[in-house]
Structures are given as structure tokens and as C-alpha cells.
């Protein structure tokens, strides 16, 4: 598995290789000539490294998905990663706090999200250790920033993101269908 990933990508179980191909194609279209992606050994999950800014990549791909929800065939979700560390509690906490101090504004709220796979780290303990060192107010439902930790085996990817910096193709498709239904319902009521 690629240890210095800056994107975590979810797909359908059994479609991991198709996901890598789709990702490679899309990234070439964005102008990235230095793409690396690998299987994680987990169903439906790949990791990748782009030479572009991973947050900007997600912003561009989200816009593409909103304009053309059918653009993605097998990519379901993309999470940008800013820092990779060993999957050890203290290293993860240190990285999260460093990023939080530089990226969470004085009056902004936050939430901690942990996605862990192939790890014995206690999720709640990690959340508590990170949250207790950030002085800002917690907002679990509508935070300004998310301290996002992706643990895959012995590697952890850590980011501090705005909620819109996580691309969920499924949510965009659902919103697109609802908008279409509302437009259809409104047009039919004339």
C-alpha cells in the first residue's frame, strides 16, 4: 500500500481496479502527470497521491460532479489528506493539533471524524485526546472545520477540512435527483 497518500478514495466492493483506472483518467484530465494509486487490501478502498493540491483537486471534482453527476462511474467518495504519520495515538494527536492551530479560526467550530481500518486504536480515546487540546467550540452537526483522521493499518492521514472538502458522489447524485424531482413537480403544477 502507498504510505504517502494524499487522497483516500472509496468505491464499490470489487471495483477497486476500475476505480484506480477512473481516478487515473480524471487526474490526467486535470493535468496531473505524477499520479500514484494503490489498493489497500480492503474492499472498496484505495489510496492515491496526486502532485496537485489534494483539497483543490476535491474542489474541482466536486464542481464536476455537481454539473454532471454521471461523470463518476465507480468513485463514490474522495477525502483529501494533508499529513501522513504513523498510526500511533500521540503522532496522530500531534499532527491533528498542529493542523488545527493553523487552520481553525478563533471563532470557528469543529468536529473530529475518525475512520479507522485494520487498527486497534480506540476511536473515542483518540477523539477525546484531539478535542481536549483544541480550545474552539465543538459542533457535531454543522462544524466550520472537521479534523479528519483516516487510519489504514500502520499509517494515518490527517487533515483539517471544511465540510465541503469531502467529495461524496452519492450525496451529490441524491441532491441532483431531488432537485430534478422538485423541478418536475413544480413544472407539473402550472
What does this structure look like?
The protein has helices at residues 16-29, 54-67, 89-103, 123-131, 169-188; strands at 7-11, 36-39, 45-49, 75-80, 83-86, 110-117, 145-152, 155-161, 167-168. By secondary structure, it is an alpha+beta fold. It has a single domain, classed as VC0802-like (2-Layer Sandwich), CATH 3.30.2130.30. The strands form 2 sheets. A 5-stranded antiparallel β-sheet has the order 2-3-1-4-9. Strand 2 and strand 3 form a beta hairpin. The N and C termini lie far apart (57 Å).
Descriptive tags:
VC0802-like; 4-stranded mixed beta sheet; about 190 residues; 5-stranded antiparallel beta sheet; alpha+beta; 9 strands
Q: What proportion of the residues is helical, as a percent range? A: 25-40%
Portion of residues in beta strands equals 25-35%
SS element count, helices: 5
The CATH architecture? 2-Layer Sandwich
Question: Could you name the CATH topology?
Answer: VC0802-like
The arrangement of helices and strands along the chain is EHEEHEEHEHEEEH
Task: Kindly state the number of beta strands.
Answer: 9
Kindly, what is the distance between the CA atoms of the first and last residues, rounded to a whole number of angstroms? 57 Å
Describe the strand arrangement of the main beta sheet, using strand numbers.
Answer: 2-3-1-4-9
Shape: globular
Low-confidence spans: pLDDT under 50, at least 5 residues?
none
* Number of structural units classed as domains: 1
Q: From the alpha-carbon coordinates, what is the Rg to the nearest angstrom?
A: 18 Å
> From the helix content, strand content and strand pairing, which structural class follows?
alpha+beta
